[in-house]
TrEMBL record:
Keyword Ribosomal protein: no
Segments of this protein annotated with the region Disordered: 1-37
Domain Tyrosine-protein phosphatase intervals: 58-215
Domain Tyrosine specific protein phosphatases: 135-193
Species in which this protein is naturally found: Corchorus capsularis (Jute)
Designated name of the protein: Dual specificity protein phosphatase 4
Location, primary (coarse class): plastid
Stored Gene3D superfamilies: Immunoglobulins (2.60.40.10), Protein tyrosine phosphatase superfamily (3.90.190.10)
């Protein structure tokens, strides 16, 4: 399967299997958090994705020595993985991911260390951010490779839901280290687990390695001297962050210069707190909600 075979919307659901599910927590608060997380994941990844944290840890063997799954929630989950031969737990979550669902990562790490026959490793990647995934993949896969060589056995790669970051890291490892063609790794992964790894991020990370991550200086301009603040979101920083533009008194406009590696970047302006786009720059076609973004190619 190549990138042209991927549908724009893919309905997948992570369901706990009999060998990997924890006892269901039926509290309304947990269900509400799962609903919000699933909605945000769907919006960010362009696929209908569902994660039910209250159902416990879920996972799938991709290869006999490689598992992709959702996050560990309690120290007891460490024992569940030990029983299937896991020697390395490779966690891609950031602290805000853990805090959102109330996961005590310290307790999990302490228990794994106490066991002595399993290693817990963190290699953080920002959730719902394909550019951050692209930038961090080489270092993360290098860390994964060293851990696997050191520990042997089965490796468990997880993010929060096990639907985006974790399958992408597993696929990059299979592609870069284990000798799979990218299309073969992608097909094998999807045959074992319904998920939506960002293929473009892996392709771009591969190009970055081969081209030594060459960057090009780009300039964004907002022609309006009457507003008081202009910011931009998207680009290489993701939609959850903003960068302020500087006002150029000589030209009466707001500008931002930024070095970007090769790729396609969508972005939007925030002018005096209002999200908008620049009609004088390239714009995307309207999405299902009628929204458009600016974009550029490097």
């Amino acid at each position: 399967m190549n990138s042209s075979d991927i549908p724009r919307s893919m309905a997948v659901k992570a369901i706990s299997g009999s060998t990997s599910s924890a006892e269901k927590n039926s509290s309304d608060k947990e269900e509400e958090k799962s609903e919000i997380y699933s909605h945000n994941m769907t919006e960010a990844m362009g696929a209908v994705l569902t994660y039910r944290h209250e159902l416990g840890m879920n996972y799938n063997f991709i290869r006999p020595d490689l598992i992709v799954g959702s996050c560990l929630q309690t120290p007891e989950d460490v024992d569940k993985l030990r029983k299937v031969g896991v020697k390395t737990i490779f966690c891609l979550q950031q602290d805000p991911d853990l805090e959102y669902f109330g996961v005590d990562i310290g307790a999990i790490q302490d228990y794994a260390k106490k066991c002595g026959d399993i290693e817990h490793i963190r290699a953080q990647i920002r959730d719902f951010d394909s550019f951050d995934l692209r930038m961090r993949l080489p270092a993360v896969v290098s860390k994964l490779y060293k851990a696997i060589n050191r520990n042997g056995g089965v490796t468990y790669i997880h993010c929060t839901a096990g639907l985006g970051r974790a399958p992408a890291v597993a696929m990059a490892y299979m592609f870069w280290v284990q000798g799979y063609k990218l299309s073969e790794a992608h097909s094998l992964l999807l045959s074992k687990r319904s998920c939506f790894p960002k293929l473009d991020a892996i392709k771009s990370a591969t190009a970055d390695i081969l081209t030594d991550l060459k960057k090009e200086l780009v300039t964004l301009t907002w022609e309006n001297s009457k507003c008081s603040t202009v910011e931009v979101s998207g680009l290489d920083i993701g939609w959850g962050q903003r960068i302020p533009l500087k006002f150029d008194n000589e030209h009466g406009s707001w500008t931002l210069q930024r070095e970007l590696p090769e790729g396609r970047y969508e972005y939007k302006y925030i002018v005096d707190g209002e999200w908008t786009y620049n009609e004088y720059e390239l714009v995307t076609t309207p999405n299902k909600d009628g929204h458009v973004n600016n974009f550029l190619h490097v």
